């Protein structure tokens, strides 16, 4: 198994509890594919959500910083006969995109942008890439999840084929963490486990800060909900969903 195939296997396993269908439903309710067909999936990863959006009728393009993730996404789309344009770039350096109906940054991908200026630049580039009336959909970790839940670790997982130990420590910024993960992946041929390590830094901001950035850039009709519901966030909400209209 190549390195990108190994990591993609682990990545998809980490996301197994994510209700991707609820994310698709959220987008479809506010921007149905018949009226908002052209969609850019930023932080598209291995293409799981992108494929679901394509099956819902959207014309999908994808952006991710990882060439390895994009390689798996390309295979996933090709396996079902779809041609989906994929681009390797940082979201805060987004360039060359115009007239999109919908742009999504799903499953806390924006939390990997830790500098305030880069978060603002990401949202600004997205505004410029949307058509008038286009919509932005994204979700981020709440302050509660970043400051309390993540620091309650370590977290462990073992299904016989993949095992991991996940330690999280406070990061250098307010409301930031460093995830340190050790994986053991079983090779079916040898029945031996291969170890590899990953380190990821994430940061979130108060909801009010995201709203200020969005309104300063020019977005309107900013709507905030929590945890795959239509309800407003509460103190112990874990995932914050934000929709904004250009």
Description:
It is a single chain. The chain is of the alpha/beta class. 31% of the residues lie in helices and 33% in strands. The chain has helices at residues 3-14, 20-30, 48-55, 67-79, 116-129, 143-149, 207-217; strands spanning 38-42, 59-64, 86-88, 100-105, 130-141, 155-158, 162-170, 176-186, 193-203, 220-226, 239-245. Strand 8 (176-186) and strand 9 form a beta hairpin. Helix 1 crosses helix 4 (67-79) and helix 2 crosses helix 3 (48-55). It is globular and about 55 Å long. Residues 40-134 form the Methyltransferase domain. GO terms for molecular function: methyltransferase activity. InterPro entries: Methyltransf_25, SAM-dependent_MTases_sf. Keywords: Methyltransferase, Transferase.
* Low-pLDDT residue spans: none
Which range best describes the helical content: under 10%, 10-25%, 25-40%, 40-55%, 55-70% or over 70%? 25-40%
| Strand arrangement in the largest pleated sheet | 3-2-1-4-5-11-10
Number of helices: 7
**What do the pLDDT scores average to?**
93
**Total beta-strand segments:** 11
Q: Give the termini separation.
A: 44 Å
Protein name: SAM-dependent methyltransferase
Pfam families: Methyltransf_25 (PF13649)
InterPro entries: Methyltransf_25 (IPR041698), SAM-dependent_MTases_sf (IPR029063)
GO molecular function: methyltransferase activity
